[in-house]
Task: inverse folding
């Protein structure tokens, strides 16, 4: 039987020996985000070269007969599903890495994970090692994991220091960005052009093949994410306090960082490097929830909302020309990053 005990802003949920703290404003924010996300997804399914009524869209989604099955069910729905999954993975990855780094500027884009995936895929495509699009996700995941592991090892000095983690990650990103440019200029011209298209981050041509394995990754990550949500409160202490309380701080950080790197790498494998989503989503979520820690569920929902909304804008802004979703997130994310930098500078002065 589950009982609830009210606290200031929280509800304690108890089920047997297990207990969970539920931040009430975070729960309300998550519900609001879920409703807005559902409305945005339906709008994305309705709008295109031909407009479909919401009622017909719902029929297709629910598996009922509809004359719009081809347009909605075969063309638009797989793209929206992939966008939802990619955004969820990026939002959750950004929240985990920012929690570990204790820095709102930290994200897979900034600390080298996305550039590791990009450099690996571009290098293999440009030199013809990878010739099938089915092999690209595996190359992206391998490259992202390798870059994340390298950053973690270089940042380790008798423990993981948050500032060193971010600074080394930025350095690795710059190095991998330069390496990617070398691959593009020295590799085969035709293959390099294909690599440039992948680098923009796009949902064009996305289907259930990408959605299927990414959904399995998120499902497998769910129990670890629940553990991470509870562990967030542990690593919010300073290192001396955490060690004094007997917390295994390094193991907790390693587990959260590893999960974030895996999710970001898999998202890059499914849609390419969709920039700035993992940077923006956690900070938007924490402002909506007004919680002490970054809310993981709200971050995941915010990431999904950003990607689906950006893809809708990318499809309709210059219709019939479709922009890659990464172009839209980049246009929004770059000013946001500058604002964060200015805000951090003022806060530190």
Result:
């Amino acid at each position: 039987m589950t009982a609830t005990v009210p606290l200031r802003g929280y509800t304690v949920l108890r089920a047997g020996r297990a207990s969970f703290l539920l931040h009430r404003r975070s729960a309300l924010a998550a519900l609001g985000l879920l409703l807005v996300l559902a409305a945005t997804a339906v709008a994305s399914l309705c709008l295109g070269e031909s407009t479909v009524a919401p009622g017909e869209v719902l029929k297709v989604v629910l598996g009922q007969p509809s004359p719009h099955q081809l347009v909605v069910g075969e063309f638009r729905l797989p793209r929206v599903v992939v966008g939802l999954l990619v955004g969820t993975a990026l939002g959750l990855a950004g929240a985990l890495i920012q929690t570990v780094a204790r820095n709102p500027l930290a994200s897979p884009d900034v600390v080298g994970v996305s550039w590791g995936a990009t450099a690996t895929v571009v290098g293999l495509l440009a030199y013809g090692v990878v010739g099938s699009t089915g092999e690209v996700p595996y190359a992206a995941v391998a490259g992202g994991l390798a870059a994340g592991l390298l950053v973690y090892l270089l940042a380790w000095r008798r423990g993981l220091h948050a500032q060193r983690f971010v600074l080394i990650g930025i350095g690795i990103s710059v190095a991998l960005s330069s390496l990617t440019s070398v691959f593009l200029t020295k590799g085969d011209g035709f293959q390099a052009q294909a690599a440039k298209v992948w680098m923009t981050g796009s949902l064009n041509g996305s289907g259930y093949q990408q959605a299927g394995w990414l959904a399995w990754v998120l499902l497998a990550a769910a129990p670890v994410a629940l553990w991470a949500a509870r562990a967030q409160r542990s690593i919010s202490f300073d290192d001396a306090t955490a060690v004094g309380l007997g917390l295994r701080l390094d193991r907790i950080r390693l587990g959260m960082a590893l999960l974030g790197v895996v999710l970001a790498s898999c998202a890059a494998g499914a849609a390419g490097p969709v920039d700035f989503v993992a940077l923006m989503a956690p900070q938007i979520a924490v402002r909506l929830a007004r919680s002490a820690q970054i809310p993981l569920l709200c971050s995941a929902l915010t990431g999904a909302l950003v990607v689906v909304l950006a893809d809708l804008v990318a499809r309709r802004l210059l219709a019939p020309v479709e922009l890659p979703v990464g172009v839209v997130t980049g246009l929004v994310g770059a000013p946001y990053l500058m604002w964060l930098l200015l805000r951090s500078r003022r806060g530190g002065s």
Remarks:
- The beta strands are 2-6, 10-15, 18-23.
